[in-house]
Amino acid sequence: MRRASMRWLPHPIKDRAEVKHPSDFRNHARGPLRDSGLVARRVLTYRHRLVASPGYLAEHPAPVIPRDLHNHRLLAFSLGKPDHRWTFIRAGHADRETVTFQPHFTMNDYIGLATALMAGSGIGDLPPVVQPEPLRDGRLIEVMPGWQFRTFDLSLVHLGHRHLPQPVRLFKDFATQMTASLFPDLPV
After folding, report:
1. Distance (Å, whole) CA 119 – CA 103
2. What is the β-pairing status of strands 123-126 and 49-52?
């Protein structure tokens, strides 16, 4: 009996050389693919939210416009860069505003960042697919909902072979169908 296996490769894909086997998958959330030898299937669209705990907002006046963020402790996801930048789009308008800052606290783990935000450490951005419950149950509140981050399409990416193994095809179909029920209220 032949065994099938799939590998989830955790970092966003750059080109075909990173995908070694027809059943290797990567997530891709950065716009169109540059390599035509790859196939992407969008499974969901979402945007990060700027959030803080009710406790933090009780002690600090909530920002109204992006430049107000300079008066707050900002927490950021980071892979080691010292300066950070958030670009906001005004809801229903074409207005954009970018805030460049040095975070009060950085972490390369969104679950840990969510924990720090729930503890009242400051304001930060979170993708809603990591921990949607704190926003649903009020432990985190969206800050400046009139100013939003851009949307992302999260896609499964694999080599563009004609003969895709059946487990890979089944997984693609399953992931596409399940995301709607797992994340029913994603902000877009």
Report:
1. 17
2. antiparallel
Fold topology of 25-46+152-188 = D-Maltodextrin-Binding Protein; domain 2 (3.40.190)
| Site of tokens 């805030």 | 99
Q: How far apart are CA 127 and CA 129, in angstroms?
A: 6
Phi, psi of 38 (to 5 degrees): -110, 150
DSSP label at residue 84:
E
Q: Is the pTM of this model over 0.85?
A: no
Is residue 15 very low, low, confident or very high in pLDDT (cuts 50, 70, 90)?
low
- Residue 3 CA to residue 59 CA, distance in Å, equals 57
The Cα 98–Cα 45 span in angstroms is 22
Which one of 3.40.640.10, 3.40.190.290, 3.30.750.24, 4.10.400.10 gives the CATH number of domain 49-148? 3.40.190.290
Q: Which pLDDT does position 1 carry in this prediction? A: 42
Q: Tell me which of 25 and 105 has the higher pLDDT.
A: 105
Q: Contact at 8 Å (CB) between 72 and 122?
A: yes
User: Is 109 a residue whose pLDDT tops 70?
Assistant: yes
